[in-house]
Hints:
This protein is an alpha/beta fold. It has four helices and 36 strands.
Amino acid sequence: MSVDMQMSKSIVVVVSEDEMSADLYLGALSEEETYDVDEIIEYMKTNEKVIAGIDRSIIEDMVTNKMYGKMVTVASGQLAVDGKDGYFDFKFDTSPSKTPKLKDDGSVDYRNLNLVQSVCIGDPLAIYIPMEEGKEGYTVRGRVLLPAKCRDLPPLRGKGFAIADDGVTYYATCDGKVELNMGALNVQQFHTISGDVDLSVGNIDFRGDLEIMGSIKEGFTVKATGNITVNKLVEAAYVEAGKDILVRGGILGGGKAVLSAGGNVYAQFIENATINSNNSVQADAIVNCNVNAFSDINIFGKTSTIVGGKLKANRMIKTRKIGSEVGTMTELTVGIEPEAMQTHTRLAKELDELAERLSKVERTIDMLSKKPDKDDNLLMQLIRTKIELSAEVHKAKAIYTEIQHRIEIGKYAEIIAEDKVCPGVIINIDGYTLHVEEEYSEIIFLRKADRILTKKLMND
């Protein structure tokens, strides 16, 4: 005989709090009694509102094998499957590292530091992978679970590429340098000098990136608005780049070379040259040079050395050895000098005063312009005054912003010698000076209050 499901107290259905599962409990029956699978399912639907994800085969197994007295999961919900946003699969390194790597022998590998990622006409640059729609889920009580919304990306903007007939493949339409900058994809043409920059080539002034397969010979000028890569040497030449300068073979400046970069300067070694970098300078060794770096001077490698000359950075100078045993004059400067701090304070006050004066002139111009019998000569004079004041504000703000940036990055300025510092070296930090009179080993120089202190370098 079957059990009347309406009257039975032998069935318990427990639905999980998140409604993602339902467990069934069957109480024991006498030998002549049995459960009806259809009635159990109807009971679950009517009494417990379990209407989805029911596995009939499990209930049949419980009834057939008289699985009494224990909870068994007989219904399961389905979680929503989130879709995937559309994305671009770029076929080049969109964030190339600009930090040279140490080789196993302790030397620095500049030859594999590629400032220019070159492509040829027809090369694939990116493939767009469209979004994948998600899939709805449900609970055992039939509540619909919605997947997270996904979206497609707009087409890439930029120049030097086209979209293939498949609508998703982007390919280069010219030979050049590829880069992704602020979401824009650009292939910019660059120029390659197959040999040296000498009398056969002459001086160069190029808009874009420039690669020189040979050397830049003495007396020549090379300028580029982008990166400049020199595969051999720079001699006593003038080199100016809007971005980075990489000299794979090193710089033999002869006391006349000048290199200026809007970004970083990298070289195998630098000797008898003047270097100006709007970011950092990195090399194996610097000998008898004048170096100015906005951020850091990082001389690293197994035998990295700074000997002779004057080096200045806002944040950090780091190398293994500083100075020489014969007392070659070597002066290192980091941090913000007091004069710059005074200028910063003065400019802050001047900007406030200029802003007030400019505001008064603008208000006067506005009132005078509304008068029917206005004095045109006076109005023109005020407009000229406004233009002059605006120019003053722009100039003062540019200087103030640069000093503010220097203050921020030079807040914890330090000089680090991983091996030793020889006597005779001059250390300047934030306008304070220390003349090194004894040899230091594995040391850090930093400023505390009104003096320069040292602390031991803790190597890993």
